[in-house]
Amino acid sequence: MKSAEFLQSLEFHGMANRQDLIETSYPDTLHWIWTRPHIRFKEWLQSGTGIFWIAGKAGSGKSTIMKHLADTPSISLRLQNQEAITGKGRGVVVAACFFDYKGSRMAKSAEGMLRTLLYHVVSLRSNLFHAVEDEFRRMKQQHGGIIWNLRILETCFLAIIQHSPQTRFFFLVDALDEYEGEDAVVAELFTSISEACTKNLQLCVSSRPHIDFREQLNPSEMLLMENETGGDIRKYTSGIFEKFIQRHGDTYRTLVNQIIVHAQGLFIWVKLASRELLRAAKRGEDIESLLKRLQGMPQELDDIYQRILDQLDPEDRNEARTMLAITISTPEYLTPLQLRYAVHFATGKYTDFNTYLAETRILAVCGGLLEFEETDSPYEGLEPTLQDMYSTKAYPGIVRLAHHTVFQFLSKSAPETLEATETDGKLITGNVLLLNACINALVDLVEQTSIETLHEERGRASSTLVERDWPESNLEIEANARLRFYVFVLQWWITCAQNAEWETNQVQLVINLLETKK
User: Fold this and answer.
1) Does residue 50 sit in helix, strand or coil?
2) Exposure winner among 144, 257, 442, 463, fewest CB in 10 A?
3) Which domain holds residue 249?
């Protein structure tokens, strides 16, 4: 039996989204994990067994360092060199999984984590499939098809590691605290896997320092991020204020020092505070005013997010609220133009659609809580008929929240910050806004245009570019973006309707919205 069927069965939509969306580390940072004697990461890597736990507060940079470790070839090279030095000569497999706070239920589950790691392992070493071939065949026979569950996945996971003594496995798993379930359950799973595979498995995991992780992970070594990032924060803030330091010297070095003191090791706090201070500096505020502004900034992330919302231009607040509400509610990441179309179809806000306007408004009105990220297309999991509707050109990037703590803040504070009250007294949440956008887009698709028309528009734009040897024009970009939004609607409108109904508990509201579009 070939491994291709096994790999295909493990895949799920959005498997690699979270890792792709984590911000790359600032230049010349995080090297301390290899050099500081008290951290002992290098020594643990050489020891060959157990769990290394990277703990830290929300916003301290745990996911960034996990992405840094996953993306760098140094771990694989170090492990290979050690195997050569010791004479064992085992092969090395390095794989990573990042729990996704905004992903599907699978992306936040233990099943999704094991499927991701198994997929990477067998993709890298197809011969390891033989260790689970019988179990895979047995599952298909017993269930009349491929039906994964946690027990079967754990059996396959352990079988591959335990039956591969000539392979050394190193796995990185980020954000255990974003697992959709009890901390104790996922901690126990990792502890049992580690104890069952002491000869050839190492696990590097990250999470907030929750009590269940402290009591049950039983790590060989650990580090606390906020205790280690002071030097990196200095590099970052010095880079942000480099021009001012060159002009004014020690006065701005004092500001940098105070930012480090106030940050308490939280990189996301530094990023947001530096952004506000830099804007103020560019407007001509003197150093005394900047230091006073810094002193007035709250320490807690929720408080600083509320401060950002409170400081939004009153004329922009409804637009910002709509963008943020849709972004935290959408079941799939949107491009800047898709978000603009969503806001338009939900509220009738816009009449012009181009990338410059879409990106400018997001940056101008949302106070830095929304950002852009270049990424591969996240639509690989769609039906082929829907995939064909997309341009073959590179995916233009997506809108994302500045940090997962923004999602948590907005989600729990939505009644106060993101919901607008209509004249009939009903609260219109992000899910209802998104449903309204889907309904209006479907009506537009049926009454005013069609998928075929959009294909023709895009085709005309593309042929013009070929004739003139021009790069992709605004006309083609806009046609693609509109097409992508319609495909998003066709794929997700039922989910949006369900979410709106579940969240508001107002079935009649959904029915009324549908009836008005007949």
Assistant:
1) strand
2) 144
3) 230-297
Mean pLDDT of the chain: 83
* pLDDT tens, residue by residue, 258-296: 999 999 999 999 999 999 999 999 999 999 999 999 999
Domain ends where: 268, 297, 326? Answer: 297
498 CB contacts (<8 Å, ≥6 apart)?
A: none
Number of domains in the chain: 3
Can you say how many angstroms the Cα of residue 327 is from the centroid of all Cα atoms in its chain?
13
| Domain match, 239 and 202 both | no
Rounded Cα gap, residues 219 and 222, in angstroms: 7
Q: Which of 227, 242, 261 is the last residue of a domain?
A: 227
For residue 55, what pLDDT is reported? 96
For residue 328, which amino acid is it? Answer: I
**Three-point CA angle 351, 352, 353, nearest 5°:** 125
Which tens digit of pLDDT belongs to each residue from 26-69? 999 999 999 999 999 999 998 878 999 999 999 999 999 999 99
* Nearest CA among 161, 232, 157, 221 for reference residue 189: 157
Rounded Cα gap, residues 264 and 232, in angstroms:
12
Q: Does one domain contain both 242 and 180?
A: no
Q: In terms of domains, do 438 and 322 share one?
A: yes
CB 270 within 8 A of CB 294: no
**Do 386 and 508 sit in the same domain of this protein?**
yes
Residues 257 and 197 in one domain: no
Q: Is the pLDDT of residue 506 over 50?
A: no
d(CA 238, CA 232) in angstroms, rounded, equals 10
CB contact at 8 A, 30 and 68:
yes
* In a shared domain, residues 101 and 125: yes
CA distance 165 to 443: 60
**Identity of residue 17:** N
- Angle at CA of residue 82, ends 122 and 114, nearest 5°: 25
Runs of H (alpha helix) within 423-473: 430-447, 451-468
**Distance set, CA 149 to CA 105, 110, 140, 152 (Å):** 14, 10, 12, 6
Query: 201 by DSSP, 3-state: which?
Result: strand
The CA-based angle 56-57-61, given to 5 degrees, is 70
* pLDDT for 419: 60
How far are the Cα atoms of 225, 274, 291, 293 from residue 258, in angstroms, in the given order?
19, 11, 8, 11
